[in-house]
Specification:
The structure holds two protein chains of two kinds. By secondary structure, chain A is an all-alpha fold. Chain A has three domains: about 35 residues, no CATH class; about 40 residues, no CATH class; about 240 residues, MetI-like fold (Orthogonal Bundle), CATH 1.10.3720.10. By secondary structure, chain B is mainly alpha-helical. Chain B has a domain of about 170 residues: MetI-like (MetI-like fold, Orthogonal Bundle). The chains are: A mainly alpha, B mainly alpha. At the A-B interface, helix 2, helix 3, helix 6, helix 7 and helix 8 of A face helix 1, helix 4, helix 5, helix 6 and helix 10 of B. Chain B: Pfam families: BPD_transp_1. Chain B: One of its GO terms (biological process) is transmembrane transport.
Amino acid sequence: MVSMKQHVNLHAHSPRSAGNMPGQRLRRLSAEIWKMRALYIMLLPCLIWYFIFKYLPMYGVVISFKDYNFAEGIFGSPWADPWNKHFKMFFESPYFSQLLTNTLLISLYKLLFGVFPSIILAIVFFECRVGWLKRWVQTLSYMPHFLSWIVIYGISIAFLSETTGLLNRWITETGGSAIPFLNGTEWFRSILVLTEIWKDLGWGAIIYLAAISSIDPTLFEAAKVDGASRLRMIWHITLPGIRNVIILLLILRIGSILDAGFEQVFVFYHPRVYEVGDIIDTWVYRTGLEQMNFSLGATVGLFKSAIGFVLVLGANKLAKRWGGSIW
Amino acid sequence: MVTSRSDKWFNAVIYVILVLIAVAAVFPLLYVISMSLTPYSEVVKNGGFIVLPRKISFEAYERIFADPALGRSMLVTVIVTVGGTLVNMIFTTLAAYPLSRRNLPGRTFFLLYMVFTMLFSGGLIPTYLVIQSLGMINTLWALIIPGAIATFNVLILKSFFETLPEELFESARIDGAREFRILWQVAIPLSLPSMMTVGLFYMVGHWNSFFSAVLYITDTDLNPLQVVIRNMLLLTQSSELQAEITVPTAAMQMAAVIAGSLPIIAVYPFIQKHFTKGMLLGAVKG
């Protein structure tokens, strides 16, 4: 009880006395810390976890500048000669432009073709005046988001397989010839985009719907009194009302443009489509862990992380202008 | 209320879009189920799979479950999902609660320490080497511990703890409760819906996860469900599967796909609202 009172008093005076007497401030700070020791104890396992599983790997990127071998480990392996050997090897290899092109294209297509359908769906949900229909369709459209990429790959086989796929059966029955949707290079990126849309169309709409719902309803009422049609209201009230959210999300997506969907590509791709479907992440996996070229794999991973870092920071800076940021 | 003709058209378009969306979400799954139930005789008769087979059989399911690999992998997945989610929740709560206390000295530093890992990562290879040097390769720990904390979920839970009224904690402290008891008896009970949301996100993540197993598990006995399903989908040409004449290979594959997604689909309607709420909580943050 007594200590409680002291605590309150300390707080009441803290703005005025702060800075005047550094010694006193330090003492107060350590008293504060001691009082909250239980909170630090709670935090400790997490801090250790972050150190081991996040910060040690960050230190581990030094193997990009070494010739890593298993016997000598991260510390013992000799430094690469010259220091940028692996970077040079990557930048000069034919993979460099191919990987970058594939990663950026797949990412951009997903952005382009994924965002607008979600916005439209959110508007449709908002405009639907039949409560039960809206709720049902919402529930159903969010569901694919929770299926794994393996399951979605299985579903794609059911529809798109050259021999048994439903779509190809329809095509052959109407006199066409079966299209290698999953096996050919022509369709590979489109299939990635299509399956991504199927998975996240409804889920992506949630955030836009929330933004639309927070638009001042009197705007709609006023427009209605003025005799505006609902299409006009969408154009002049709904869309401008969520413009900032749209821009914000676009910017944030651009910050992670080098993530083209590792798990999805990993599940869908195979050697025949490397040409159009191999992205940075999948290449790092194959080079680093399958071919055991740890240093080169880590180098390309570092290249991606570094660019990603700059992009996220830039995106966040931009995003602040539109009234939001990641942190 | 008077509805004009253009309004009627507008509504009609809305309803058509919604129905199409619903069909697009559900039809693929229904078709996969139908395929998994199609016996070989039907495939021969119709020259392939059709949407509604006349005769159905559960033989595809019987066959895939006759292979002990599937049952074992389900057990692995259940263990990892239950154990992993438990570990997730303990770590996430223990991180979120202290950070939700605004007067915690060093709070900004700790937050930065965590959020920085969302911006920059060592990458796949160095992470693998760390986990390898910890001796976790080919243990279920590799599927649980490296993913114990998702920073995003810490932020969600933290922002929820922050909404709890400060007076509550003050009065608990005046009553002489220690921090661990306050967390356990005040903060957690009041945050159950949010904790549940976060827990469900972790759970679905564990159930669907396959890549950490691809990375860290080479012992086939420890393969989780998704990896086994993936192997079945890739094994189209296997002679062993093609020798079956009563059950089509594709039916068995689709049965495996259903086995991998059914638990999620079955519980999804009941937990759906938690997910959307979590999404919005995250969105407010993000």
